Every structure is written in structure tokens, then in C-alpha cells.
Amino acid sequence: MQTQLLILALAGLLASESLLAIPIRVLAWDHEVAGRKLAIVQIKGQEIIQAMHPSRRTGTYQVSGGDQPLVIQALDRPLVEEEPASSGIKIPAGLKQPLLILLPDAKSATGLRLVLLEDDTSGFPWGSIRFVNACGKKLAFVMDKKVFPIPPSWDPVQTDPGGSARNLDVQLFFYDKPERPVYSSVWEYHPEERVLVFLIPGEDPRLGPVAMKMISEDRRLLAAMAEVEKKPDGSAKP
Q1: Are 40 and 70 in contact (CB under 8 A)?
Q2: For a Cys-Cys bond, which of 12, 39, 127, 212 suits 46, CB 3.0-4.6 Å?
């Protein structure tokens, strides 16, 4: 009887842990961060973050939700009290599939600042474009003659061009100086893709005061990669 109760209790514990598990992916801000040796700390141990890159998300990791903070260990930094230096962040309730952005931060023991964005396709669907304004100034994005104000915030502003694949005429302005664009171009739009755009201060005066860090994802490519993973030998289906 006691054995049965113990089995039921363990089963309940594992079930609750499974319900609290949250899928998360990681985006390194730059090549320096991408080249570091970092790990996600789990209840069951640590897991090295693989294949970080500043222009694409990593694979998915399962992390604990609930009251447990998300902890990143810097395995390439000196130990702190005989433990790897670590940075933590609380996952807000309701986040379905967070994107963890690792930014450089010289003041942190890990050399990192952690930022979480919701990345689930239910809120960030295919065919949409999201902007995060890290410039410190209010901007205005113009697309197909529609104006989208973008305040300086890590809360994304989303646009949805809709329709079929086509070219889009786009411009970017400082909100208080609408007479002259700081950026003007033609973007290729496709409804099977979604793009996360970080607006950051430009470092090259010749290219303007605002630069763009664009992270694109293609649903067709993800589907093809999933098919490859289904094959035992890793080869693609004919």
C-alpha cells in the first residue's frame, strides 16, 4: 500500500513538473556572446546552450516555470564562491514560448543581461513584422503609406502587411522629425516568414543614426528541418 502511494506521489510530482515546463529558445546579441560557454540551469542539472548565433534562434530547451527563475551560468568566467557565475530572470506568468536574449553587460558577474520576449506564433504569427526600439528615441515606421509609431521600449510593436509575397516600400523617421527619413528601402515580404527587428543606435555615421538588427524565421525551412529530424539517419525525405 505504501509503495503504491509513493508511486502515485512521484507520478503527481513528475506530472506537475511537466505542466510547468516551458519551451524556450536563445538569441545571442552579438558574435562575442555567441562564442561564449553558457548553460541553462535545470532542477536536474545544467544544459550547455548549443549553436548560439546573433542572427538566428537556437533550438528549444525545456525550462521550469512557476516560481523557479530562469538561471544562466557563465562557464567561461571565474567561479563565485566555488560556483559558476550566474544570472537569473523570472519568467512572467502567461509566456508560452519565451525568446531569451543575451545582451553583453560589463557590470554583471556573468557579463550578461537577460531579456525575455514572447515568441509564440499565436501572438507573433507568420507574415508579421515586430519592432523593438532600443534607440532611446521615439521612431515612426512607414510601410505602404501606413505609419506605425514605435516608442523606445523592449515591448514590441507589431505590423502585419498581409496579402501575398511582394516588395514593400518602407521608411523610418524620428517621430519628431517627419520631414526627413533616417532609413529608406524596399523589403521583400513573404507570408511564410516572420521578422523580429531591433532598432539600435547606428555606429557608422555614413549609414545613418539608426541601425537594424533583423532576425528572420521561415516556416517552410522549419518544416523541412523537422522532416529531416524524423529520419533515423538524418537524411531528408525524397
Answers
A1: yes
A2: 39
Name the pTM for this structure.
Answer: 0.86
How many CB atoms neighbour CB 21 within 10 A? 15
Name the nearest CA neighbour of 211 among 220, 223, 202, 222: 202
Task: Give yes or no for a contact between 104 and 112, defined as CB atoms under 8 angstroms apart.
Answer: yes
Rounded distance between C-alpha atoms, residue 236 and residue 226, angstroms? 9
Characterize the bridge pairing of strands 70-74 and 85-89.
antiparallel
Q: Which amino acid is at 116?
A: L
Q: Dig out the grid coordinates for 76 from the structure.
A: 567561461
Q: Is the four-CA dihedral 223, 226, 230, 232 of positive or negative sign?
A: positive
- Give tens-digit pLDDT for 148-200: 999 999 999 999 999 999 999 999 999 999 999 999 999 999 999 999 999 99
**Cβ(27)–Cβ(54) under 8 Å?**
yes
**Cell triple for residue 175?**
517621430
Contact 131, 212 (CB under 8 A): no
What Cα–Cα distance (Å) separates residue 134 from each residue in 11, 137, 176?
Answer: 45, 8, 17
Give me the residues paired with residue 42 across strands.
45
Distance CA 1, CA 210 (A): 68
For residue 237, give the DSSP letter. Answer: P
Strands 193-201, 129-133: pairing kind: parallel
